[in-house]
Amino acid sequence: MGMNRRKREIWWYVLCDYAASVLAWYGLFVFRKTVIEAHPFDLLLPFADNNFWVAILIVPELWLLFHYLTGTYSDLYRKSRLQEIGKTFVVTFFGSIIIFFLLLLDDYVRKYSDYYLTFFVLFTFQMLFTATFRILVLNILKRNIKRGKVGFVTLMIGSSSKANELYVQLKERAESFGFNFIGYLELNGCSENTLTAELKELGKLPDLEKIMEAHPDIEEVIIAIESSEHPKLNDILNRLADKNVTIRIIPDMYDILSRTVKMNHLIGEGFIEIPPLALKEWERITKRWFDVLASLAAIIITLPCTLYVAFRIWWTDKGPVFYTQERLGQYGRPFHIIKFRSMHVGAEKSGPQLTSENDSRITPIGSVIRKYRIDELPQFINVLKGEMSIVGPRAERKYFADRIIEVAPYYRHVFKVLPGITSLGMVKYGYASTVDEMVKRLKYDIIYMENMSLMMDFKIMIYTVLTVMYGRGK
């Protein structure tokens, strides 16, 4: 499914929400003028009032902000119409409360009950218009799927009779769900598979990463394996952990999955669904806004310290102030992390090395800034660029990431989220000087991902501040 098409349809959704908020405010304005203020009924009355035009410039933007912050404008084709109506009700209710107190509380009323009536009318109009427009748009999108105009590029993993049965069932209703199968991955080692006549065999389990790289447009992976093949499931999930795809599994395997898995009833018994993101959309958006605002504040507040440290590094070591190094970010994408240089120039001429106690490569000023984590300050630039978050798993170099994966294949799961300046592993374990220590620290990153929340981020930031204050870094 093309990105341009998706963006265009999101913009239609936004325009419909904008129109709904304009119509709702117009209806409220007419109601207040004719019922509460007892003006003669006139549909053109609002256009002669300056307050109406001022509100029209403010109110729709507020509603669009509410909807954006709650993750409304994403993945339209996967939205459930019933769930969308429920979510619209909740957002509209609380949004109406905010707008009422911001713009309507000091309006003219004849009696106190007029306040309740005003709120009820605002909520009713807003809910009615927003829900109506959204259902119309979502019906059009569902019709596009049924007509085959839109589909999700899908890979089937499995080659047994169960996989064939599932594929036939999906194929019969392919127009309802939009699965565009490009082929299947063979698992059971049989020379003949029932799927071969229907789908193209793309390879076997060791080829999964190559298949995903060769088909970057894959959006869905359906795992259909027999009970005897369950031991392979963890291997499959680990190989897919750093991919931006939705994973669907037939439901008799739910007992070996984490509690982050949710049921999504599509056909018959339904699928178990593992979304590509560890956070809900509204949580991701809120976290991103917090990262941006907090990073800007941190850069401004620490500017005197930053300038002093930059001068000391340049003056005492006569080399570059900053040090950039390629690290792996979300979905394993490489980026260049920015740090204050704490080691002598050319410290890794002989290849990648981890730091250790009393490392001779560390400069005198470097030992101080590492102890108080001051060398991490330039990473706020990485956060502003969208390459990192303030809190998240530690970003590693590919060389060491590969070494960790050899020992702990589940390490790939940390690529589901943006890496962070600080992490639960850093505050609980600290720096690691060997691969074994990196694996031990990894368990804290997995714990963090299983319990991700804004409150968890705040706790980790508080621990980080205490670490800086007491100089517990190394």
Short précis:
The chain is 51% helix and 11% strand. It has 474 residues and is α/β, with parallel strands linked by helices. It folds into three domains: 3-146, no CATH class; 152-274, Rossmann fold (3-Layer(aba) Sandwich), CATH 3.40.50; 281-469, no CATH class.
Plain-language structure description:
- The chain has 474 residues and is of the alpha/beta class.
- The protein has 3 domains: 3-146, no CATH class; 152-274, 3-Layer(aba) Sandwich (Rossmann fold), CATH 3.40.50.720; 281-469, no CATH class.
- It has helices spanning 3-36, 50-69, 81-104, 113-146, 161-172, 174-177, 208-214, 233-240, 281-301, 303-317, 364-371, 379-384, 398-407, 424-428, 435-450, 454-469; strands at 152-157, 179-186, 201-204, 220-223, 246-249, 262-264, 271-274, 322-328, 334-340, 389-391, 420-422.
- The strands form 3 sheets. Strands 3-2-1-4-5-7-6 form a 7-stranded mixed β-sheet. A two-stranded antiparallel ribbon has the order 8-9. Strands 10-11 form a two-stranded parallel ribbon.
- α2 (50-69) crosses α3 and α13 (398-407) packs across α15.
- The two termini are 48 Å apart.
